Amino acid sequence: MGHSQAEKAATRERVLRITSRKIRAEGVTRPGIAELMNEAGLTHGGFYKHFRSRDDLITQAVAFALAEGTAKMERSARKNEQDPRAGLIDAYLAKQHRDAPATGCALVTLGAAAARGGQDVKEAYEKQVRTYLDLIAGLDDDAEDGEDARAEAMVTLSALVGAVLMARAVDDQEFSDELLETVTARLTGHASHDTVPAP
Questions:
Q1: Alpha-carbon Rg for the chain in angstroms
Q2: Total-model pTM
């Protein structure tokens, strides 16, 4: 790859990274092209060197945001060598994760957008759900067979995403904390997770 092509690829990734954070924090309808380009240090006209339209950018940014979570989930699981599944759950349900939607799991923030989105967005969301299910199922040493592990992974992932979604949405801080702590306790058998880095 030549220098100019490498530079173009790096610029494109920077725009995707900025956009992915914006849409996780503010939703897919709000950020405009001018705002995003300004934050990336580019002109409005430079946008079309990288993307066909705003919809093209948003679709790619959704896929980028979703895929970005895989490495974070894997790192979270590896932090607890004795019980990787508990490590993943602790990190996902940490207050730090709840309080950082712009860098947190896109399954939580982009679910509604995916439900209303086009085929590309739905496919990206589905791909990430399946990836996470495979990851979680692979951490379940107690499952007797693959079907048990997959079913347990579905329950676990649904609880993780739902708990963070509700914990962010409610107004009462103590109630929000209780949601995270209770779901953590039910999924892992312990409630302390405040010191675990967020995914």
A1: 18
A2: 0.85
